[in-house]
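We emphasize that the prediction below concerns an isolated chain of 220 residues; any contacts that depend on oligomerization or on bound cofactors are therefore not represented. The input was used exactly as deposited, without trimming of termini.
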Amino acid sequence: MQPLSQQHAAPTYFIYLKDKSTFTVQLHHKQVITFSGPSEIERWCRKYIGRYFLQFFNTNDQKEFLFNEIRISLMKQSQNQWKRIGIHTKSPAENSLLNNTQNSVHVLGFNHYLNSLQPNINELLLDDIVSIQSSLPAYLDKSFSPSIEFAVDLLHTNEGKLFISNVSSKPGRTSFLKTYPEKENQLINIILEYAQSTMSQPKEVLYEQKTFHHRISPHK
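Result of the prediction step, given as a token string:
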């Protein structure tokens, strides 16, 4: 259960269904609460409606859901083509809550993480990442306002399962620059070049403005 806004450092909660009637909620790494039925957990969740959203992960074993966090950073470059500019990982402690990779002190380069995986899991992960990079940017551009950058946060389990946990159009760059300090000037140049290219393009009329201009006045 993740907060809709990351601005106030709201926590992410993990809710586990142990059996058909017992739910546990991990509040933080030292506190877990238990509910004995769906109605109890529903009442608890109700107070977060509007501020959190639920995301479901299909896993049968809580121990399997020990994961590593992966963040893919992409930016739109010349000709409006999306390109990955970096990828890094972190490894949370067992039973810890999901930590935003942006706020992590301990980050690793992606190659270091790949070398720690079994060959079959390594190959599957790389294939999944290629699929995400080839399809997600176009979908986001089509569905939302155009953006110059975004980050995709992934959860990668020890068994090789991959989940998209978050997509941010305004990602922080602290952990990215810890991993790739040599790319700071590249980031600045990409942003400046994109700004210059948008200045030379004709401005699109907003939907609200189009509606206003075509609205028939009741006084005519």
